[in-house]
Structure formats: C-alpha cells, structure tokens
Amino acid sequence: MKTRITELFGIQHPIIQGGMHFVGFAELAAAVSNAGALGIITGLTQRTPADLAREIRRCRDLTDKPFGVNLTFLPTVASPDYPGYIRAIIEGGVKIVETAGNNPQKWMPALHEAGIKVIHKCTSVRHSLKAEAIGCDAVSVDGFECGGHPGEDDVPNFILLPRAAEELKIPFVASGGMADGRSLVAAMALGADGMNMGTRFMATKEAPIHDNVKQAIVAASELDTRLVMRPLRNTERVLRNAAVDRLLEKERELGASIKFEDIIEQVAGVYPKIMKEGAMDAGAWSCGMVAGLIRDVPSCRELVDRIMAQAESIIRQRLAGSLAG
Ligand SMILES: Cc1cc2nc3c(=O)[nH]c(=O)nc-3n(C[C@H](O)[C@H](O)[C@H](O)COP(=O)(O)O)c2cc1C
Fold first, then answer.
1. Which of 28, 77, 103, 122 makes the best surface tag, with the fewest CB within 10 Å?
2. Res 325 pLDDT > 90
3. Boundary (domain end) residue, out of 208, 225, 245
C-alpha cells in the first residue's frame, strides 16, 4: 500500500508502532520494521543517552529497515537530559523521531538539520495544527480510545480524524483503538494516511515484556480500562487492576485536593515491575480500549501481514462489492 506516510518514512506498510515505556526496546522495534512497518524505540526508557545510543546500535544489528525513536517531553521538575538523547539519536543515524507530550519546537532545528523526519503525537486538532505550524513532518492523531495519555478533550477518533483531515495539510496517522485491517481501512476512509498502534503491538511474540502482560491484554474486554489522574489533568488510560481501584478510591476521597504524592505508590516506578516481572497488580499501566479486539499473540510479521491482507480484502471485496449492485 502506498500513502503519504509510506513515502515519507520509506516503509512498505502504513503502520507505526508507537513509543511505549518499558515495551519499546530494540527487539520490538526491529521486529516491527522487519515486518515492513515502522518500529520505534522508546527513548526515555533508556536511563541515559549512552544507553539509548547502545539500544539504537542493537536495533541496527537486528534490522536494516528504517526505525525511529520516541522522545516524550514530560512536564517534570527534574528534566531528562534531552540534548543528550537528541545527540544519541543524531549520532546513531536515526532518521525518524516520534515526539509526544510538550511542544517539540525547541528541538526542531537540530532534528531537521540532521535530516530527521518528525512525527508529533497530538490528542486534538489545535495541537495538530500547532505541530504543522512549527514544521513537524507528520502527526499521529491520538483519539480518546487510546492507551496512555488521551489528553483532556475526550474526542474519539470517529470525530477527531475527519476533523484533523479537514484542517491539516501534512500527513497524519490514526492512533488509538487500531487493531486490524478494519481499523486501517476505516482510518484511511476518515482521512488518515495510515495508523499507529500501541496496545496491539504489546501482544506480539517479539514484545520483550512478561507473558502475564500479554495474557492480561488478551483476556481484557473493551470495558476493562479506566482513566486515572484526571483530577491532576494528566489523564492516563490504564488496564483496571487492584492498584488502579485503590488509586481511583483515593481520587474519590481526596477530590480536588489530590496531589501527585498521594498516588505515587500506584504510578511511580511501576513499569519495570509490571513489564519485566509480570507483577500485574504492582501499579497502573497504560492500555487501550482496543484490548477488547485483541485475542491472540502473533509474531509482528504475522500481525502486519494479516492486517494488510484484511485491509485489501475489505477494499476489494466488501467495499468495491457494495458498489457493484
Ligand atoms: C504500555 C504503554 C506505554 C506507553 N508509553 C508511551 C510513551 O512512553 N510515550 C508516548 O509517546 N506514548 C506512549 N504510549 C502511547 C502509544 O505510543 C500509542 O500512542 C497508544 O498506545 C495508541 O493507542 P492504542 O494503545 O489504542 O493503540 C504508551 C502506550 C502503552 C500501551
């Protein structure tokens, strides 16, 4: 399939694997890229820029296809060494960066000078237009369904994507709730040039996470996610578990007076325990409503091939066929 996104990134299929904390290691990024889609290493999961440089080299050993690095700009007090991470990306010869969180404007000149294409993840049309205005090459439009941080506007993709298509000139992919060939065709019908998936890529053979996490996703239905940290305006969609229930109870008890410190136990430093050790109740971890559509743990190649075959059959048979009569 050829779209503005496959052309921009030099990939075979218009599918991207979004950055995921403690999931987006070289093994997953390379497996996704080897399947003809775009794999992405999660920059901040690497503790230092030197660790990221090593992870980029590891990924290059595993694939000769294009892959990217995610850089999430967090509103934290102690800021990570962003200049160092950007140097590691440039010196590592990576040509695609997925930015997320705060506006990446400050870093655009350095990235573009190095010939790097930037795709910024946005949860609203206004942020997407801002990304276009500051020179981003593409955006990933992340609807309310998404795993991770859906923002505070709560607009689902059936509205958000056609709105983005009405306003944007640069290419964009649909993100949030995407799982299969149906998602891809629907996203393209709504104006997107491809799709970005997070949760679906966690439940793959190559995702370097504990099998308990993959099985939890397979077992979950579309009713099993919850929104946490809404009172802190840092909303995150997570899979419901005992820790999430405790967190939500605290949010109800403390109301508007809640502070980050009140819920620190459920959200800070929990990812390694969950993703590496499989301690499923250790805290809150991002997961999309799309878990309700995920029923198996295929290899990345099986998944991508299946998506593309299903998309083609929907377009050629179901859609074209419905015109025939
Ligand atoms: C476990 C997990 C961790 C994530 N971590 C990050 C992250 O560190 N940075 C980021 O930009 N997005 C992160 N995301 C969001 C994904 O990149 C992607 O936008 C999102 O999962 C899309 O929604 P979906 O899960 O419905 O496919 C994360 C998502 C998940 C499920």
1. 77
2. no
3. 208
**What is the token pair recorded at 157?**
């993709």
Tokens of 72: 């999430």
Please indicate, yes or no, whether the overall pTM of this predicted structure exceeds 0.85. Answer: yes
Distance from Cα 271 to the centre of ligand 1, integer Å: 13
193: domain CATH number? 3.20.20.70
Q: How confident is the model at residue 80 (pLDDT cuts 50, 70, 90)?
A: very high
For ligand 1, whether the C-beta of 143 sits within 6 Å is: no
Mean pLDDT of all residues in 147-166? 98
**Co-location of 263 and 156 in the same domain:** no
At a CB cut-off of 8 Å and minimum separation 6, what does 199 contact?
147, 217, 286, 287, 288, 290, 291, 294
Q: What DSSP designation does 232 have? A: G
Q: Ligand 1: which of 286, 290, 303, 307 to mutate, judged by most atoms within 8 Å of the beta carbon?
A: 286
Closest CA to 186 of 157, 146, 144: 157
Give the HSE-up count for residue 299: Cα atoms under 13 Å, Cβ half-sphere. Answer: 10
pLDDT above 90 for 296: yes
User: Residue 165: which domain range?
Assistant: 4-208
